[in-house]
Amino acid sequence: MSLKIGNLSLSVPIIQGGMGVGVSLSGLAAAVANEGGVGVISSAGLGLLYRNLSDSFPNSCIEGLKKEIRTAREKTKGIIGVNIMVAMTNFADMVKTSIAEKADIIFSGAGLPTDLPSFLQKDSKTKLVPIVSSVRAMKIILEKWKNNYDYIPDAIVVEGPKAGGHLGYKENQIDDEKFSLEEIIPEIVREVRIYEEMYKKSIPVFAGGGIYSGEDVARFMELGASGVQMGTRFVTTEECDADISFKNAYIQAKEGDIEIIKSPVGMPGRAIFNDFIKRTKEGKTQPKSCPFHCIKTCDISKSPYCIMLALYNAFKGNFDKGYAFAGVNAWRAEKIMTVKETINSIREEFQAAIVNRFAAPRLSLCFA
Fold it and tell me: Which domains does the chain have, with CATH numbers?
């Protein structure tokens, strides 16, 4: 019993979360795809990684994305997706490039991707999956897509407030149980079922944000999700594209080190506390200019640092000038494993949870 997104079959009900800058590229994405999940390349910050391919930041982003998708294709016959944030100033270029390169899926959040279907061509094979944090956002997207483009999402990712990186919540909502993933998933699943019946199309719902173990997977599938999105768990894998120092930051982190910070883009974010974050709080960092103009909502005159450079520095292992975004459970990482070992471990945790919970037998079939 494989899970489907359109005509794409997953033998493992896991979407690997897109993690920028540089944390999830072709290496990690291909490894996850080879194990039967959806491997996801993050398009954020590729212009920094591929500055040698073009004189301009926008063009180097495009060339970098082409190279990552093509490299992933050389490594796997599995499902490769691209995560593209609506808030990126080059959103349209990244979407067009992903479609032209025949990425299997585009995942899009950090804003409402209301015009995403407009970029598809008649012969496009790319599936479209919005990332939402509320029933309201899901309804807006679904109705806009249907009314304006006669297109229904191929799946929906629901990202809760325990995720790493930028969060689609206000600070006072992050610890409010009314906004927890456990509350949101059943609501959205109920609404999606109405649209599935109305339009005669399957729309699998994936739960994301704070999901770390196979027990978490089982719990959210019991709440109605078809599968999950996991990012943090895959950082401490051999195939993760970040520097070893980035991975070790997770392994060395304690539960109290993971905190909510104020990002220059105007959204709360979750990261592993370090000296760089301490200095930003003390007002000891200040960017001189904005070399990239990468995020629409970032105001250099009010920013204590450049978010793109901070994340890039961390990706390269330079934590004196950056920090690592991380989900709420990053502190649970104990060692670096391969992606295969990680997914096998999640599978074992999942099966143990099913036995312990006496859950419906159908759940045990979700890992083919």
Answer: 3-243+332-365 (3.20.20.70), 244-328 (no CATH)
